[in-house]
Write a structure and sequence with these properties.
The two termini are about 30 Å apart. The chain is an alpha/beta fold. The chain has 12 helices and 15 strands. The strands form 3 sheets. A 5-stranded parallel beta sheet has the order 2-1-3-4-5. The chain has a 5-stranded parallel beta sheet with strand order 7-6-8-9-10, with helices on both faces. The protein has a 5-stranded mixed beta sheet with strand order 11-12-13-14-15. Strand 1 (about 5-10), helix 1 and strand 2 (about 40) form a beta-alpha-beta unit. The chain folds into 3 domains: about 5-125, Rossmann fold (3-Layer(aba) Sandwich), CATH 3.40.50; about 135-270, 3-Layer(aba) Sandwich (Rossmann fold), CATH 3.40.50; about 280-390, 3-Layer(aba) Sandwich (Trna Endonuclease, Chain: A, domain 1). The protein is about 40% helix and about 20% strand.
């Protein structure tokens, strides 16, 4: 198989790299991608096997005590405009422990194995295998868990998530319920605060039902003395105890969690994200493949999870299943990737997305973009109509 993606590991040899690789390939499997499409490069095989036209993500493990190794490789990767992540043990000493070439790049602190989950997510995002927007939706009952909801909102925002919380995320003048469903449709993971009366609210029950209908991964924090509700059994449960809360055993709407528990929640969210997006992408792929089979069209799912459609005179059609709401940057990255990797002008590229719960004004915006950009869109509900015209 021709390699589509490259990971480069250079600099000071890291004892964590084997753990990083193991978790990376675990996530690749969750996304349904073929491991053989990934090439791991280091200083031993770089000059023989590296390809400049392949999406590449570089980890530069840096430590002044070991000397700044492999600067010739580093220069080549920077000249080729590849994504590069300098990794140090302490960001407060970043400029001390990194070479001049990377001082203008935000570094990553790998202090211990607890940081590996986030690092792997950054690699997958950088390669374009996981979308860059990191969206999370907090579903909760205000009179039971407002304190924890706001605490998690703030901590997750600090860790690079775009978090939706109803009291913080809807601007004045916006239609509340339309915007809420729109943001739910564009989320990666739902963080559900399962308090004793959570499902007694009509709104929270609807949020759970909508998340289940869209196959969105749910991380369910279960309050002490409460249990996993039958309606929510598809989620990943995280049972809380009284000792997980600050205070003296009294839990109410103003309570909040201990710092160690919050860190655990963030790690579990990172872990669930790839699995959730992979499942939603698989649903979109299945819709297209089933429709193509029904109409007798020759559609093929490629190892990198895009679809090619044959029997179209003079053109190869490439269909990219896209989770959530397509953004302008989604169009740009898609076009850039296929120009770089396929290097073939005899093709057309389409983004396939599920428009369920996306606001009407955004759908109109996407239709407008279709008239100006080389990458076009297809709605899941219009697959058969689109195929009949091909």
């Amino acid at each position: 198989m021709k390699f589509r993606y490259q990971i480069v590991s250079i600099g000071d040899k890291s004892d964590s790299f084997d753990d990083i690789k193991e978790l990376f390939f675990e996530k690749i499997n969750e996304l349904g991608l073929d491991e053989k499409s990934i090439l791991i490069l280091d200083s031993d095989n770089f000059w023989n096997d590296y390809h400049a036209n392949v999406p590449t993500f570089t980890l530069y493990f840096s430590n002044r005590k070991s000397g700044f190794k492999h600067r010739n490789i580093l220069k080549k990767l920077i000249d080729d405009a590849n994504l590069l992540l300098p990794i140090v043990k302490n960001l407060h000493e970043f400029t001390i422990h990194t070479p001049d070439e990377v001082h203008g790049i935000n570094g990553f602190q790998l202090a211990n194995n607890n940081d590996i989950e986030k690092l792997v997510s950054l690699i997958i995002e950088g390669l374009g295998l996981l979308r860059l927007s990191r969206r999370l939706f907090i579903s909760y009952k205000r009179d039971e868990s407002t304190g924890v909801a706001i605490q998690l909102y703030e901590k997750l925002e600090e860790n690079g998530f775009d978090v939706f919380l109803d009291t913080h995320s809807i601007r004045p003048g916006e239609p509340f319920q339309d915007e809420l469903w729109h943001r739910l449709a564009d989320t990666d993971v739902v963080l559900l605060l399962n308090t004793p009366d959570f499902l007694k609210s009509n709104w929270t029950t609807q949020e759970l039902a909508q998340a289940n209908a869209m196959s969105i991964g749910i991380l369910q924090l279960i309050w002490p003395t409460h249990k996993l509700e039958r309606e929510a059994e598809i989620s990943l449960p995280f049972k809380l105890s009284v000792d997980d809360f600050e205070g003296h055993g009294i839990i109410n709407a103003k309570s909040y969690l201990k710092e160690a528990i919050v860190k655990n929640v963030i790690n579990k969210t990172e872990s669930l994200r790839a699995r959730s997006l992979g499942a939603r992408q698989d649903n979109i792929v299945s819709e297209f493949m089933n429709a193509a089979h029904k109409l007798g069209k020759q559609a093929y799912l490629q190892p990198e999870k895009f679809i090619t459609l044959e029997n179209v005179p003079g053109k190869e059609l490439i269909i990219i299943p896209t989770v959530g709401v397509p953004q302008a940057f989604t169009y740009y990255r898609t076009d850039e990737f296929y120009n770089r990797v396929l290097n073939d002008s005899n093709r057309e590229v389409f983004l396939l997305y599920d428009q369920f719960n996306i606001r009407e004004r955004w759908l109109n915006h996407l239709s407008w973009l279709d008239t100006y950009l080389p990458v076009k869109t297809i709605k899941v509900t219009e697959i058969e109509k689109w195929l009949r015209n091909r």
